[in-house]
Write a structure and sequence with these properties.
This protein has about 130 residues and is of the alpha/beta class. About 45% of the residues lie in helices and about 20% in strands. It starts with a strand and ends with a helix.
Length: about 130
Protein backbone atom coordinates (compact mmCIF):
# COMPACT_ATOMS: atom_id res chain seq x y z
CA UNK A 1 0.00 0.00 0.00
CA UNK A 2 1.49 3.25 -1.15
CA UNK A 3 -0.06 5.82 1.16
CA UNK A 4 -1.12 3.64 4.07
CA UNK A 5 0.16 1.54 6.92
CA UNK A 6 -1.46 -1.25 8.88
CA UNK A 7 -3.06 -0.91 12.28
CA UNK A 8 -1.60 -3.71 14.36
CA UNK A 9 -1.74 -2.84 18.05
CA UNK A 10 -4.72 -3.74 20.20
CA UNK A 11 -4.78 -0.23 21.70
CA UNK A 12 -5.00 1.36 18.26
CA UNK A 13 -8.01 -0.80 17.38
CA UNK A 14 -9.68 0.01 20.71
CA UNK A 15 -9.18 3.76 20.23
CA UNK A 16 -10.83 3.61 16.79
CA UNK A 17 -13.73 1.52 18.17
CA UNK A 18 -14.35 3.92 21.08
CA UNK A 19 -13.80 7.29 19.42
CA UNK A 20 -14.53 6.58 15.76
CA UNK A 21 -17.76 6.60 13.81
CA UNK A 22 -19.15 3.44 12.28
CA UNK A 23 -21.31 2.51 9.33
CA UNK A 24 -22.20 -0.94 8.08
CA UNK A 25 -23.65 -2.79 5.12
CA UNK A 26 -24.43 -6.47 4.48
CA UNK A 27 -20.80 -7.59 4.26
CA UNK A 28 -18.61 -5.10 6.16
CA UNK A 29 -18.52 -2.71 9.10
CA UNK A 30 -16.18 0.29 8.91
CA UNK A 31 -14.97 2.44 11.82
CA UNK A 32 -13.20 5.70 10.95
CA UNK A 33 -11.26 8.07 13.20
CA UNK A 34 -9.55 11.24 11.93
CA UNK A 35 -5.88 11.71 12.86
CA UNK A 36 -3.33 14.51 12.49
CA UNK A 37 -1.12 12.68 9.99
CA UNK A 38 -1.02 12.57 6.19
CA UNK A 39 -1.32 8.84 5.66
CA UNK A 40 -4.08 6.41 6.46
CA UNK A 41 -3.77 3.39 8.69
CA UNK A 42 -6.05 0.44 8.01
CA UNK A 43 -6.86 -2.50 10.25
CA UNK A 44 -8.85 -5.55 9.20
CA UNK A 45 -10.68 -7.83 11.60
CA UNK A 46 -12.36 -11.13 10.69
CA UNK A 47 -13.75 -13.17 13.57
CA UNK A 48 -14.05 -16.93 13.89
CA UNK A 49 -17.80 -16.59 13.36
CA UNK A 50 -17.08 -15.92 9.68
CA UNK A 51 -15.32 -19.23 9.04
CA UNK A 52 -12.16 -21.25 9.47
CA UNK A 53 -8.68 -19.77 9.06
CA UNK A 54 -8.60 -20.33 5.30
CA UNK A 55 -11.86 -18.40 4.85
CA UNK A 56 -10.79 -15.64 7.24
CA UNK A 57 -7.46 -15.12 5.49
CA UNK A 58 -9.15 -15.07 2.08
CA UNK A 59 -11.54 -12.35 3.21
CA UNK A 60 -8.67 -10.39 4.75
CA UNK A 61 -6.76 -10.55 1.46
CA UNK A 62 -9.84 -9.45 -0.50
CA UNK A 63 -10.42 -6.44 1.77
CA UNK A 64 -6.74 -5.45 1.73
CA UNK A 65 -6.53 -5.73 -2.07
CA UNK A 66 -9.79 -3.78 -2.51
CA UNK A 67 -8.39 -1.01 -0.37
CA UNK A 68 -4.98 -1.09 -2.08
CA UNK A 69 -6.47 -0.73 -5.57
CA UNK A 70 -8.72 2.14 -4.46
CA UNK A 71 -6.34 3.76 -2.00
CA UNK A 72 -6.00 6.98 -4.01
CA UNK A 73 -9.77 7.52 -3.77
CA UNK A 74 -9.68 7.88 0.05
CA UNK A 75 -8.80 11.13 1.78
CA UNK A 76 -5.71 11.06 4.02
CA UNK A 77 -5.25 11.28 7.77
CA UNK A 78 -7.57 8.48 8.87
CA UNK A 79 -7.47 5.38 11.02
CA UNK A 80 -9.81 2.85 9.40
CA UNK A 81 -10.91 -0.47 10.89
CA UNK A 82 -12.84 -2.82 8.60
CA UNK A 83 -14.70 -5.75 10.16
CA UNK A 84 -16.00 -8.57 7.99
CA UNK A 85 -19.49 -9.88 8.65
CA UNK A 86 -20.40 -13.56 8.19
CA UNK A 87 -22.21 -12.66 4.95
CA UNK A 88 -18.86 -11.83 3.34
CA UNK A 89 -17.78 -15.48 3.45
CA UNK A 90 -18.76 -16.53 -0.07
CA UNK A 91 -18.57 -13.17 -1.82
CA UNK A 92 -16.42 -12.31 -4.81
CA UNK A 93 -13.71 -9.67 -4.94
CA UNK A 94 -16.00 -7.27 -6.78
CA UNK A 95 -18.75 -7.54 -4.16
CA UNK A 96 -16.25 -6.88 -1.35
CA UNK A 97 -14.75 -3.96 -3.27
CA UNK A 98 -18.22 -2.50 -3.89
CA UNK A 99 -19.09 -2.86 -0.18
CA UNK A 100 -15.85 -1.11 0.84
CA UNK A 101 -16.45 1.82 -1.53
CA UNK A 102 -20.07 2.05 -0.38
CA UNK A 103 -18.91 2.46 3.21
CA UNK A 104 -16.37 5.05 2.06
CA UNK A 105 -19.22 7.06 0.53
CA UNK A 106 -21.31 6.74 3.71
CA UNK A 107 -18.40 8.04 5.81
CA UNK A 108 -17.73 10.81 3.25
CA UNK A 109 -14.07 9.82 3.12
CA UNK A 110 -13.85 9.46 -0.66
CA UNK A 111 -12.44 12.38 -2.62
CA UNK A 112 -15.13 14.38 -4.44
CA UNK A 113 -14.15 13.47 -8.02
CA UNK A 114 -13.93 9.82 -7.01
CA UNK A 115 -17.45 9.84 -5.56
CA UNK A 116 -18.81 10.90 -8.94
CA UNK A 117 -16.86 8.17 -10.77
CA UNK A 118 -18.00 5.45 -8.38
CA UNK A 119 -21.62 6.63 -8.61
CA UNK A 120 -21.43 6.65 -12.41
CA UNK A 121 -19.91 3.15 -12.48
CA UNK A 122 -22.62 1.89 -10.13
CA UNK A 123 -25.39 3.41 -12.29
CA UNK A 124 -23.89 1.93 -15.48
CA UNK A 125 -23.70 -1.47 -13.82
CA UNK A 126 -27.41 -1.43 -13.00
CA UNK A 127 -28.53 -0.88 -16.62
Amino acid sequence: MLFSESLKKYGDFQRVYKRGRSYANKYLIMYVLKQDVQENRIGISVSKKVGNSVVRHRITRLIRESYRLNEQKFVGGLDIVVIARPGAKERSFFEIESALLHLGRLHSILKEEEKKEVKKEHEEGID
